[in-house]
Amino acid sequence: MSDLTAVTGVLDAWQKGIEQHRPDDVGALFTEDAIFQGLRPYSVGPAGVAAYYDSQPMGMTVEYRIREVRRLAEEVLLGWAEADFHFVDGRDPVQVNLTVVLTGGLISHYHASRR
């Protein structure tokens, strides 16, 4: 499997979990010690990730575009993407730069910052 395919597979599952409002499915994509830095205070581990996405509004969707992928070590990948979160209530999309580090196929670090 290519590095790009590996990052795309995880982000596709992340996207699907968000769009179906399945926060536990999103949390399951993260390692037990994952650092999660969304747009609010950070958390560590899948439970914090699930709580973050559980608090998001129903109907939220996300589109992402992978910009770069790098192999950092044997089972460690870095992915950088642009992501746009859309809401059903008509508010402006939230546009972020998103960096993920995958370790053994799961997200071990997630950092989002507004574009």
Brief summary of the model shown:
The protein has 115 residues and is α+β, with helices and mostly antiparallel strands. It has 3 helices and 6 strands; from the N terminus they run ααββαββββ.
The top level CATH class name: Alpha Beta
Q: What is the mean pLDDT?
A: 96
**Secondary-structure arrangement, i.e. CATH architecture:** Roll
H-E string: HHEEHEEEE
Count of discrete domains: 1
How does this structure look, described?
With 115 residues, this protein is α+β, with helices and mostly antiparallel strands. It has a single domain (3-114), classed as Nuclear Transport Factor 2, Chain: A. It is 27% helix and 46% strand. The chain contains three helices and six strands. The chain has a six-stranded mixed beta sheet, covered by helices on one side. The longest helix is centred in the first third of the chain and has 17 residues, at 3-19. The N and C termini lie far apart (30 Å). The model has no long low-confidence stretch (mean pLDDT 96).
